[in-house]
Write a structure and sequence with these properties.
187 residues
């Protein structure tokens, strides 16, 4: 009986260690700067326009200047931004950046839990081939940084922030420095 208890305790300890290591590899700490809401980059969003062919399902106001090329000096926007709180927990915030034309596109989801966050990226298309489910993910996120204007939000609150991502293509090993400012109302 003592051996079984000892093995069980070692198993639980190893499982806790693996979970903790996964958490710290996948999640990063959120930075908070109340001044981000008054930054010139957020104010410049009013002067930006949507890219031709961009499917905008939200409002006509520009909510983000997120792009795959942060160095580009372009006033054309190809992404939309939608923030929402989880139904059962005000401690879980989801920030979605989407670019698409109705047939294919790219989704970037940032999940904030407490003062930690993790980003994921997904491509989609309506032109599926029979064995597309066997393909590995097209992109992976190597580095991530999130700055928000405050630590806690409720539905209807305004949110302002900045995101920086280093995204690697798993097809040709290209690295993209993606990111931008964003603003919106929590749904």
């Amino acid at each position: 009986m003592k051996n079984i208890l000892k093995i069980f305790l070692i198993f639980i300890t190893a499982l806790a260690f693996i979970f903790t290591a996964f958490f710290f590899l996948k999640f990063n700490k959120v930075e908070y700067q109340s001044s981000v809401s008054n930054s010139t980059a957020v104010k410049k969003l009013n002067k930006k326009v949507f890219a031709p062919g961009f499917l905008n399902t939200g409002s006509s106001a520009i909510s983000t200047d997120f792009s795959f090329d942060r160095e580009a000096k372009n006033d054309t926007i190809g992404f939309s931004f939608h923030p929402s709180l989880h139904e059962n927990s005000e401690n879980r915030l989801s920030l979605n950046f989407n670019s698409g034309d109705g047939y294919s596109g790219l989704n970037i989801e940032v999940m904030k839990i407490g003062s930690w966050f993790s980003s994921s990226i997904e491509t989609y298309t309506d032109n599926m081939k029979p064995f597309d489910f066997l393909d590995r993910d097209r992109y992976s996120i190597k580095k991530q940084k999130l700055i928000l204007n405050k630590s806690e939000y409720k539905k209807g609150d305004s949110i302002f922030g900045k995101i920086e991502l280093e995204i690697q293509s798993n097809i040709n090993d290209s690295v993209y420095q993606a990111g931008g400012y964003f603003r919106g109302k929590i749904e």
